[in-house]
Design goal:
- The chain is mostly helical.
- It has one domain.
- It is built from two helices and no strands.
Length: 45
Amino acid sequence: MGLVELVASLEQQFGIVIAFDTLDLDHFRSVGSIASLVSSLVTHA
């Protein structure tokens, strides 16, 4: 449940969509990797 809550929070906070069919757990292994994911999605929005 924690990962789902984190994804929902990131989506709401940054106005992005993290598609579950493309979800890679490696993106959530560190704060840096989460920041990189969010940054890449924000720039593509």
